[in-house]
Amino acid sequence: MRKRILDKRGVGRSKLIPQRPLGGGYEQPMDRHERRKTANLSNRAVLEQFCQDHGIEFKISNEGHHWRFSRGKIEVEWWPSSAKLVVNKRWHQGIHVHDWEQARMQLCVAFGITDG
Predict the structure, then answer these.
(1) Using CA atoms, how far apart are residues 86 and 19, in angstroms rounded to an integer?
(2) Which of 12, 24, 72, 113 is most exposed by smallest CB count within 10 Å?
């Protein structure tokens, strides 16, 4: 069994794709993860345009589960369904990122973009 590496920090709750309360608790994690993946995929054009404007290569694989952004020696990977974002494979410094807008802000940090 593989050991899960916890994220070092998070960027806060998502305003675009918030967690849904149900009865006395919240939606099931699998339902929430699928909903977030689907919502982010439907807004991929926003990140595609951002990447094109800033010379960042952008690829989505594994049916939308794995998003990769690269420019020069920097590679950012994001898994929208689990909200894990890592820069240059630094797994123990992962960032918990729920939506495409939060991801774009982290891309600005990783790639040194000030006009994003």
Answers:
(1) 22
(2) 24
Q: Which CATH architecture is the domain 20-111 placed in?
A: 2-Layer Sandwich (3.30)
| CA nearest neighbour of 85 among 4, 2, 8 | 8
- Listed as ranges, residues in the chain with pLDDT below 50 are none
How far is 110 from 61, CA to CA, in rounded Å? 21
Q: Which two tokens stand for residue 114?
A: 């000030």
- What angle (nearest 5°) sits at the alpha carbon of residue 115, between those of residues 84 and 58? 45
pLDDT of residue 103: 95
Q: How much is the pLDDT for 22?
A: 66
Half-sphere exposure of 44 (CA within 13 A, CB side): 17
Enter the pTM of the model: 0.84
